[in-house]
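Reminder: ligand-aware prediction takes two inputs, not one.
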Amino acid sequence: MATDFIIEKTTNSRLASVDFSNIQFGHTFADHMLECDYADGKWGAIHIKPYGKLLLSPATTALHYGQSIFEGQKAYRLANGEAAIFRPKMNWERFNKSAKRMCMPEIPQDIFVEGMRKLVGIDKDWISPSKGGSLYIRPFMFATDEYVGIRPSEHYKFIIFCSPVNAYYNDPVKVKIEQHYVRASEGGVGEAKNAGNYGASLYPASLGQAQGYRQLLWTDGKEHKWIEESGTMNVFFVIGDKVITPNLDGSILDGVTRNSVITLLKDKGITVEERRISVDEVVEASRNNTLKDMFGAGTAATIAPIVAIGYNDGELVLPPMETREISTWLLDTLNGIRYGTKEDKFGWMIPALN
Ligand SMILES: Cc1ncc(COP(=O)(O)O)c(C=O)c1O
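Here is what comes back for the chain with pyridoxal-5'-phosphate:
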């Protein structure tokens, strides 16, 4: 059964005023958004309407008690001219995991995936045509009870809006191993994509940035011994002929890019180990020159090779870019699939709806 949408198209498109070669990440918004409200135990009608501001009560519970979750994914313009979204079902499944952990209602696939396909179909001309360009998609949900007091809200708002973007990092990335602050801990909410995780990371990240590090490399909350993930990326290390990435232990995000990287590497016959990896192991591999590559993997950055890792008062310097065979191959392969120039053998690109 086709999903029903109530569609109100803008009569005042802003598209012609956008210079796609000159957009800053996350600052420009496409013409339309999708909105759907939850009340009386069920989701209501799905509206697609002009992008615009929200009117909220000061007592909106999400603003006070943090029931707020989001996703981030991208649509691309394929070589054949079609618009397609990268693995939207995985984001939908993760969104519902986050919802469950934050005591929020799950959302049907119809609203999340089909709604996104419809929205992107309507705003497909907002996919940035620049090299490395795409349309970043931001689905999110927050509690809308007008109430002061701590309990799960009974009302929620789900919204999807889109933002044309170009490449995220233009220069090589340095990360710093965090040895004091904690992003997430065992039994906490690290694997949920809830707003509070990001709010809590801002202060420690700002300290790292003041020292010249773009992102922190988080370690476990108990001992600061085990590597977890970076700001908005999962991380991979190439040590000898193996690729190692921290296992999903409940405190790191189950990244869609991470999953795609593992799938592509295994398909190429490369050994991938999902396991605990200690700071000591990385330091040791760097010292004995077996640390060949390290990269972050995430929707915004795609594959971001790391040039240096700050640790204690020193820095582990990674091998030069021209030797980074694995990260270069991954970026090339993922881009090929996303822009439709390489075979999409896993069926990852899902077309937008007209
Ligand atoms: C904390 C964190 N880890 C990892 C990732 C990478 O996940 P994905 O590949 O699904 O974008 C993100 C970005 O969503 C993130 O916010």
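DSSP finds seven helices and 19 strands in the chain. Residues 72, 229, 232-234, 253, 255-258, 298-299 surround pyridoxal-5'-phosphate (CB under 6 Å). We will return to this case in the review session.
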